Amino acid sequence: MTDMLTPKKRRPGLGMVFQLFWRASRVQRKRAILTVASIAWGTLSLVLLMAFGEGLGIALGEGWVGMGVNIAVIWPGETTKPWNGLPAGRAIRPRIDDMRLLRERVPDLMGVSGEIQRWRTNFTYGEKTVNGPIKGVSTVWGLMRNQIPLAGGRFLNPLDDAQRRRVVFLGYALAEELFGEEEGVGETILIDNVPYTVIGVMIDKMQMGAYSGMDEDHAVIPIRTCYAQFGEDKVSTIIIKPLEPENMKQTLAEVAKVLGAKYGFDPTDERVLGTWDTVESGRIRDNFMFGIKLFLGIIGALTLTVGGIGVANIMYAVVKERTREIGVKMALGAKANWITGPLVLEGLTYTLLGGVFGLLMAMVVIVLIALAPTDGSAAMRYLGKPTLSVPIALSTAGILGIIGMLAGYFPARRAASIDPAETLRYE
Amino acid sequence: MSDTSKALANGNIIRMEGIRKVYDTGKIQVEALRGIDLEVDTGEFVAVIGPSGSGKSTLMNLIGCLDTPTDGHYELSGQSVAKMKKDELATVRNRRVGFVFQNFNLLPQISSFENVEMPLLFGGVSRRKRHQRVEELMERVGLGDRMDHKPTELSGGQMQRVAVARALAMDPDIVLADEPTGNLDSSSGGDIMELFAELWEQGRTMVVITHDAALARRANRQVEIHDGLITTDTRS
Prior knowledge:
The complex is a heterodimer. By secondary structure, chain A is of the alpha+beta class. Chain A folds into two domains: 16-65 and 283-425, no CATH class; 109-242, no CATH class. In chain A, 54% of the residues lie in helices and 15% in strands. Chain A has a six-stranded mixed barrel with strand order 2-3-7-4-6-5. In chain A, α3 packs across α8, α9 (278-321) crosses α11 and α11 packs antiparallel against α13 (390-416). Chain B has helices spanning 3-10, 56-63, 86-96, 112-122, 127-140, 156-168, 186-201, 213-218; strands at 12-24, 29-41, 45-49, 71-76, 79-80, 97-100, 174-178, 205-209, 221-226, 229-235. In chain B, α6 runs parallel beside α7. The longest helix of chain B is centred in the C-terminal third of the chain and has 16 residues, at 186-201. The chains are: A alpha+beta, B alpha/beta. Chain A binds chain B through residues 1-8, 11-12, 16, 19-20, 23, 26-27, 324-325, 327-338, 419-421, 424-425, 427, and chain B through 2-4, 57, 61, 64, 66-67, 86-87, 90-91, 93-95, 99, 101, 103, 105-107, 109-110, 114, 118-126, 129, 132-133, 166, 170-171.
């Protein structure tokens, strides 16, 4: 008989824990459901908050790309330091030809373009006249400033500039105003009564950040054509893009040096060339987004922690309720781990089950929001795209796991400290 | 050689020397046992009697390895258990001791079958052997037809018989009972006494703590405790 009762070769471990848990979980269904619901709710909050943060980050990123990536916008201004006998307060106004100088002298430049901006220009198509801004730029500007033409059209090319062609590239909002439903490409419009051929219309894009109105509203013509028609060769802004974004600071210093040598100003005089460095502000934006995501994540995690406290609470109640049962099991030879293991597993199971339900609910909500029309509202464009990602899934799983472990561990520790002799004696 | 026969070679199943147990409640110290020497041989049926507060229950907890003594030496089946760790004690309880309690201490949510199965589960016995063993034991206590009943669906006497089956599950060296008839009417109590007597006659070592004079008379040895000390020890 004793021989029959010899244990199997493998020592009982995890299998034992699962078996005991399975036996215990048959009771307390209602309580388990409530606990799972609280965790599901917490997970839903956590995942949705993080997904909104992620979506906002993506939308901001897209909007950022809209204006152009890793470019700097330079506004010529006035000197504030005397230089080589010249007084402070002189206006510095680079001209179209200086762009070639910069291209030749500044190393590692992907592109440089002057920009001559005129604010109130009349655009006429047939009977209709619309008022808007126009920019004279060179070909590379289109690349730097992310001007992508709709199918069937194109952006300016070097020949347009060299031959001073009267061709125009339109922002989509301006094109819509002029042509309505009609296709604009190939049509002739009047710009301040001079005829131009429309060669392209820009695609609809998200743009965050602008220095001279939104791209959707403007018209773009070759810079030399602009000079020929309006007689202005002083550029209002210069757009540069270094080959490597890390070199932005050196490149900007080089630009100041080259222009300083020509126009006689101190290259360290920061007020001469007002600069918007999007590499730098992109970094700030990234930090800012990280902060927002962290904030949302912490709020979500706290919500989930409340659910975890619920689990711990129920597990404490379970331990209290099962004190005698635990005592009996100890008397019958259960080791400490066989008492704590199923309890930890129980807490973990409630947590993970709730986590799965919460995640499923979050996915449904996210899909429903994605289906809702944005109706061109800017707020919906930025907030209406909650997105799930691998880091969100991993951090949610991690937080759930930790909460589940803790919620089971502490009550289980109390269970293990139960004195069997004490619990068995009295009714 | 089986564990039981090893103990036989040593002569005693229980050997206690100078056992003291002091409960420290912080402000006051209570000396529940003040130096117990006790030897129980294989196959003995010992009744431990004494008024309440005499230290009977403390002695039972120590014999059953539910607790460790403050002082003294205790060998169970030749194995010194006084200084064992919690998990080692759990193994000893599982293998060597079968408990029968006054209030049965069956788990109410599970069937009597599963109650009896529990020590076998903790002992790491395979599923097939567990089932075989439980069926055998339930037949032995005359409840072969009640295996799927939960304890709440059984009478007091039946519950105590399930508890006896559970105590026997791992074929322990001793059956240790604390007032096994205390919660039963005289007829059910009589049945349990009968069962105990049968077990003893089959060669099992029994230690019973009781107020019940009838049950104490069934034993072949009466040990009386007063105030933490053994006062009389008679064999009949």
